[in-house]
């Protein structure tokens, strides 16, 4: 009996250290940031049972086998389409403003195409009005409607969007809807799924969450994009989920979510369409390449001096692209940099770039929510405040709801708007999208919105912040330890 007991003990002991050694090897061999690597090693060694479990589910970036295979070859298949797109020289902007040149050169080098001109842009700041405009566009659609959202929550005006889609599908419009499985769990449990499918709408549950799938791929890789594409000409993108702002998370006590969307008409729809095509193929295995833009789409002669790039991230897309774009934009700033984000847990490189911008004389403002839906992120973000304030960064805490907008404005000329939060999950993990816009008129409009946010915010005082309670500093450090894993 003692021999059997000792054998079992040795076996368990050997498996335990084999797991520890294996995880250590995986952490060291993969070129992660040093803080991220240290966090993983510490959590595995200090609380091994919990650490090993977390690593098993969240430590490696991977999709299911079929999805991974498609993702790895997606851009090589799309190269033929991209080459054909390059031949449409009439849509490309050859010159950019001084502040935008570096970022557009980076995008061209890594994604293969220059910025696209002749687009009509409109900023939308009110979620209810945005949905009303979207419903109008859905009813006016002539050919196709494609959508992808992280969250679709039934109820209120979101149901009006569903009705509009159903009516459009019944009159022969080809409608495709892709929703994240975790974010839109209430939608997939509702009757709308069957009603929509019966009307002819194709619905895909992206990155399905189930007990069996947790052993096949990471469960926290999420489809976080928000895209609407209508007739391959009108497109929407930004931070808004498909929810009624008066009903969404009403019980959380943070107020209405404040979002920012961009509605665009023009040839940029083709590049957004290829991103949607890639996402659709990763989930379904079927390719739905968008048509190439034709000269009839070039209707906006007044916007010949502006241009747009689209940056997509996630498995199968150019690695670290959004992180590089953010760094390039920040280092391009000469006199003003304004950033809005609901989640402020930047990488060390981003933190250094923001502080350096302030220290070299750029007026840097970061606008974040005063009230938050995530306790973890709220406390983790606080640890960065001291360093930012010391560098001269203005930190504004928005008090009229949960500021969910994700935007950057550089020198009132270069704008970045999309789904990307300033946290590790958006930068390294999820499927995200960002619009890079080189347009002074658009920049001035975004500045007006930022100034409105600032007028509805508290300015964090450096002296008051330095006098905060000791126990809060300890709590901040604990959550900072976990920040590379958030």
Q: Could you provide a short overview of the structure?
A:
The chain has 486 residues and is an alpha/beta fold.
Structural write-up:
This protein has 3 domains: 2-58; 65-91 and 118-304, 2-Layer Sandwich (Endonuclease, Chain A), CATH 3.30.870; 321-485, 2-Layer Sandwich (Endonuclease, Chain A), CATH 3.30.870. The protein contains 18 helices and 17 strands. The protein has helices at residues 2-29, 34-46, 48-58, 65-86, 101-111, 127-140, 157-170, 185-188, 192-199, 268-284, 321-332, 348-359, 375-382, 385-391, 424-429, 440-455, 462-466, 470-482; strands at residues 120-124, 144-149, 174-180, 202-206, 227-230, 234-238, 257-258, 261-265, 307-313, 336-340, 363-369, 394-398, 402-403, 407-410, 414-418, 432-438, 457-459. Strands 9-16-15-14-10-11-12-17 form an 8-stranded mixed β-sheet, with helices on both faces. It has a 7-stranded mixed β-sheet with strand order 1-8-6-5-2-3-4, sandwiched between helices. β2 (144-149), α7 (157-170) and β3 (174-180) form a beta-alpha-beta unit. α2 packs across α3 (48-58) and α4 (65-86) packs antiparallel against α10. It is globular, with a radius of gyration of 23 Å. One of its GO terms (molecular function) is cardiolipin synthase activity. It is found in: Cell membrane.
